[in-house]
Amino acid sequence: MKLWLVRHAPPLIAPGVCYGASDVEADAERTAACAAQLALELPRGLTVHSSPLRRCLQLAQALCALRPDLQLRQDPRLREMDFGQWEGVRWDDIPRAAYEAWTADFGTERFGGQESVNDVLSRVAAAREEALAAGQEVVWVTHGGVLRALALLGQGMNRLDRADQWPATVAGWGEWQSITL
Predict the structure, then answer these.
(1) What predicted TM-score, i.e. pTM, was given to this entire model?
(2) CB–CB of 178/4 below 8 Å?
(3) What is the mean predicted confidence (pLDDT) over 1-26?
(4) Residue 113 — left, alpha, or beta (φ > 0 → left; ψ -120 to 50 → alpha)?
(5) At 35, which CATH number?
(6) What residues make up the domain containing 142?
(7) How many distinct structural domains can be found in the chain?
């Protein structure tokens, strides 16, 4: 089963700001360019599963407008990690003690009070299992954190203990790849 993984275009937010689950827009020009290129690549009749956050929905909607054969479905499991009280705060302004607590217990610490990395892995695993069970080629329009979580799941890791286990690299803004599950 093929899964197309698409990362949203650059978000319109100041550099250095923690914005995980914040509902910010993406660069409109880059969104349109990504949608136009991706529309040429995708097979007909796929379902496009999108994070409900605007920066992903913009891309999913632009893609479906170009390709009426595609069906859009919002999936909250594909949203970025929720950093709670740190949403909208500059990373440099987050207290060092908060980082230390997070890295000391990376899998289960709820950085910002909302969601842990293992929570993210769990919801992405549920979406992945649903895609596998359906057995049909599908598109995910999502975020860097979800793509990292999916990479770990592909390696058989469904829980993390250490920060150094979290993948350091991810697809760039407006980039995509396809993987076989």
Answers:
(1) 0.95
(2) yes
(3) 97
(4) left
(5) 3.40.50.1240
(6) 2-180
(7) 1
Looking at residue 181, its pLDDT comes to 86
The span from the CA of 146 to the CA of 159, in Å, is 14
**Cβ–Cβ contacts within 10 Å for residue 110, how many?**
17
Beta-carbon-side half-sphere exposure of residue 168 (alpha carbons within 13 Å) = 1
CA distance 83 to 80: 9
pLDDT at 60: 98
User: Which residue reads 């319109």 in tokens?
Assistant: 12
Provide the token pair at 140. Answer: 């995910």
Q: How many CB atoms lie within 10 A of CB 85?
A: 13
90-118: pLDDT as tens digits: 999 999 999 999 999 999 999 999 999 99
DSSP 8-state code for residue 155? T
Are 12 and 24 in contact, with CB atoms under 8 Å apart?
yes
pLDDT digits (tens, 9 = 90+) for 45-92: 999 999 999 999 999 999 999 999 999 999 999 999 999 999 999 999
Q: Is 6 left (phi over 0), alpha (psi -120 to 50) or beta?
A: beta
- Residue 120: φ, ψ to 5°: -60, -45
Does the pLDDT at position 165 exceed 90? Answer: yes
